[in-house]
Design brief:
The protein is an alpha/beta fold and 201 residues long. It has one domain (23-197): 2-Layer Sandwich (Nucleotidyltransferase, domain 5). The chain contains eight helices and six strands.
């Protein structure tokens, strides 16, 4: 992970053309794919880190879920064979933690991804997360109400964002890009729709 997470002084200064982007909070866009309807059955996590209005890093991990049951292979293409030798979420948490702990989390339909995250926290008894969330569905509904729907593929297509739908890395990147483009149209929209879980830092 890059040093900008640990040393804000190393970040570049924003010039005047970037000042509107600075109104966008720093956040990590995430997407979980699950093996089956159980919320703790995450089999892939993708993320895109936004700092000063710019995507500065993208990551993804395959995750070994608690059981071999895969009902959603037809959606994301992941099978038990793909993840059988992957670490589980508890083993991955030290690597994932810096991207999520004490950061605003964004997702397209954020309630799903946050509930997956909370289910993993409960199963693996890792530290409880609290912080702000941004739902790019809500952002898209406010900025582009004329769209026929606000599914990720529809919004991404409208904004000409490349998307390999249900690949977690691609979905997370699209979420981040939706919020960035929304901020370019209406600076401060992300902060206005933010919802908080637990105590504010």
């Amino acid at each position: 992970m890059q040093d900008f997470f640990n040393n804000n002084a190393s970040l570049p200064e924003l010039d005047s053309s970037d000042r509107e982007a600075s109104l966008c909070p720093d956040f990590t866009a995430i997407d979980f794919e699950t093996a089956n309807p159980a919320m703790d059955s995450a089999c892939q996590l993708g993320l895109a880190v936004v700092q000063n209005g710019v995507i500065v890093e993208r990551r993804d991990w395959l995750i070994c879920p608690p059981t071999e049951r895969f009902d959603f292979t037809y959606i994301h293409g992941i099978t038990w064979r793909d993840v059988a030798d992957a670490p589980d979420f508890r083993q991955l948490w030290p690597e994932i933690r810096p991207y999520l702990a004490e950061r605003v989390i964004a997702a397209h339909n954020v309630s799903f991804d946050i509930n997956v995250f909370f289910a993993l926290i409960k199963r693996y008894r890792i530290e409880y997360w609290h912080g702000g969330t941004i739902d790019s569905v809500i952002v898209a509904r406010r900025l582009w109400p004329h769209l026929p729907n606000h599914q990720l593929s529809t919004v991404a297509g409208h904004l000409q964002i490349p998307l390999d739908h249900h690949d977690a890395a691609s979905d997370a990147n699209a979420c981040a890009e939706i919020i960035r483009q929304a901020e370019a149209c209406q600076a401060g929209i992300a902060k206005r729709v933010m919802r908080w879980y637990g105590k504010r830092g």
